[in-house]
Amino acid sequence: MKYLIVGLGNVGDEYHETRHNIGFMVLDALAKASNIVFDLNKRYGGVATLSLKGRQLILLKPSTYMNESGKAVRYYLQKEKIPVENLLVVTDDVALPFGALRLKAGGSDGGHNGLKSINALIETQQYARLRFGIGNDYPRGAQVHYVLSPFTEEDRQTMPERLETAGEIIKSFCLSGINLTMNRYNHRKPSQTPNE
Prior knowledge:
Elements: E1 2-7, H1 22-33, E2 39-42, E3 45-52, E4 55-62, H2 69-79, E5 87-93, E6 101-104, H3 113-122, E7 128-133, H4 143-147, H5 153-176, H6 178-185
Helix pairs in contact: 1-5, 2-3, 5-6
């Protein structure tokens, strides 16, 4: 059983650890915790493979830049023969407060260029996405500057725990399915464990 886990972001040092790159950060943290490394020389992006209880998770960080992420997603879905129900896209979301994590089974792109590209190229909106809240503390008209800026020092202090939880959600999605995982994680506050 194969899964394609895509973290959205932009390549280049100037985008490293900016809010728009939280998808990359989630996958980097998951790879580090799993003792695997990304091969950055693959077509359309960096790729790492995580084996998890008989399942193969292909982690993808597209190198296409955000607005052409769909090219990488479509290529790896086809190349690895992965059904769209086994696709999970990790993305930043200004509609959620910092650190909030929401798993969704589908939906619109919400104005997100990465999701817009994926929706267009795989010709469906019905795929799972993990939305990582980055907050919306910016003046009117300053969204682009905000999402391409680094996280605050306060955000950075709780980041390791949030990244770890995002990794747990990804694993749960692959092992337990989307419905159980949504029930388990979507209503949790950042400091709660699944049973609280």
